[in-house]
Amino acid sequence: MTIDPNSFYPTGDAAQTAATAAFTDMAGSMQGSRILGIAAQVKGMIAEGVDICNLTVGDFNPKHFPIPESLSTRIDAHVADGQTNYPPADGMLELRKAIAEFYARELGTAFPYQSVVVGSGARPPIFAAYKLFLDPGDTLTYAIPSWNNEYYAHLNQTKVITVETAPEQRFMPTLAQLAPHLRETRVLHLNSPLNPCGTCIEEGALKEICDAVVAENKRRETTGEKSLILLYDMVYWLLTFGEKHVHPIGVCPEIAPYTVYVDAISKAFAGTGLRVGWGVVPPYLQGKFKALIGHMGAWAPRPVQLATADFLQDGEAMGTYLESFRGQIQNRLDTIYNTFNGMKNDGLPVMAIPPQGAIYLSVRCNLIGKTLPDGTVVESNEDVRLYLLHEARVAVVPFRAFGLEGETGWFRMSIGAVSQSDLEAAMARVEAAIRAVC
Ligand SMILES: Cc1ncc(COP(=O)(O)O)c(C=O)c1O
After folding, report:
1. 225: Cβ–Cβ under 8 A, 6 or more apart, which residues?
2. Tens digits of residue pLDDT in 41-78
3. Which of 34, 123, 127, 151 best tests ligand 1's pocket when mutated (most atoms within 8 Å of CB)?
4. pLDDT of residue 32
5. What is the pLDDT at residue 38?
6. Phi, psi (deg, nearest 5) at residue 144
7. Contact of 386 with 372, CB cutoff 8 Å
8. How many CB atoms lie within 10 A of CB 123?
9. Helix orientation angle between 123-133 and 283-296, rounded to the nearest 10 degrees
10. What is the mean pLDDT of the chain?
11. pLDDT of residue 34 exceeding 90
């Protein structure tokens, strides 16, 4: 006889009541990712046969962007070699050493391998940093638009201070914006190259911020207050276009004791599904990261860790891969940028920020007040998004999904899932749709 638990599960309104009764208050008010909500709508339309150019998710289509072949063959080899048991909670020694050497080679930093803590992607070290440095009610400060900070803050019941950035500053925060909040802040979370904007922080701006973080920590050391930690997410740092990647210790070595770097192979080598990321943390803080990642079971798959260690040491294979990968990403971003810039030069109410890094482009379509072909008047970003989706068959994510409220007309376009030719065709449709209403 088959036992059918399904017949006992509450459904409809009863399910809602039962869920409220089961969950904590935190879980009850937890939101799913707004980006993934939009992506799910688009996938539904694609499944129904609508031919949509999907510029929503920060992921790669392996058909267009496969992982490096030598990484793939090494994963297979390590599985065949029986490397299928638990890895150490802070990562395989081979990988931790390879990461320290890789940073020494590429960033000119001599981190001890003991500072490295490996996790299943960049998310576990980010989650761990929130958990380890922020008691409920402590203050996190970050700039918006930004990727996902609010969800981590909510999970952790963290108090949030946001500073709103503008296109003139390439959506990067300045010290002038952050300074009034530093005294109260326990964690300052920065991301460069930036998701969603595809922009990079400037060296001078980062140095000013880092100097202020050091000064604030020196002050706290005299008062016994808890320290101010800089969480620096640089998962896209190998994907920049002519920009020099800048990082806290590179511009202000004294910030080392207070800085946690977050990085991964997810974006740099198109390996979002391989789940290898890491934090580089001061050695005196590393043990708790190790313990927490171990408790979560958020370690990275052992054979993938070993293959990543091999790959990071193979500078030639990495260089060859990155050159081609970066070139293809930049071509796609340039295609979008040139389309929008051309329309802007023709006086249309659109603009785009030149691509600097990551796989995203910030575009503005200020169509509010325009009358659409069906006679309705555009009143919101959502109207613009739906117009582009249905008229141009191009799916984008409004900056609202990254915390920038208001009808700003800004959208993120992400190019990892599309071919160059599909993107060119899509941009022609976007241009036709915009010209039709302007
Ligand atoms: C800025 C940033 N950090 C971290 C992540 C998460 O990376 P992972 O897939 O390695 O967890 C993402 C993913 O989109 C991201 O955009």
Report:
1. none
2. 888 999 999 999 999 989 999 999 999 999 999 999 99
3. 123
4. 87
5. 86
6. -115, 150
7. no
8. 18
9. 110
10. 96
11. no
Which helix (H) or strand (E) element contains residue 143?
strand 139-144
Q: Is the CB of 156 under 6 A from ligand 1?
A: no
Alpha helices in 23-68 (DSSP H): 25-28, 34-47
What the block records as the tokens of 67 is 């992982």
The residues facing 118 across adjacent strands are 278
Cα angle value 231/234/238 (rounded, 5°): 165
What does DSSP assign to residue 67? P
More reliable by pLDDT, 289 or 408: 289
- Alpha-carbon Rg for the chain in angstroms: 23
Amino acid identity for residue 376 in this structure: T
Which residue matches tokens 């959502």?
382
- What one-letter code names the amino acid at 273? G
Residue in 118, 267, 275, 414 to alter for ligand 1 test, most ligand atoms within 8 A of Cβ:
267
- Cα of 121 vs centre of ligand 1, distance in Å, is 7
Specify the residue with its C-alpha closest to ligand 1, atom 1. Answer: 195
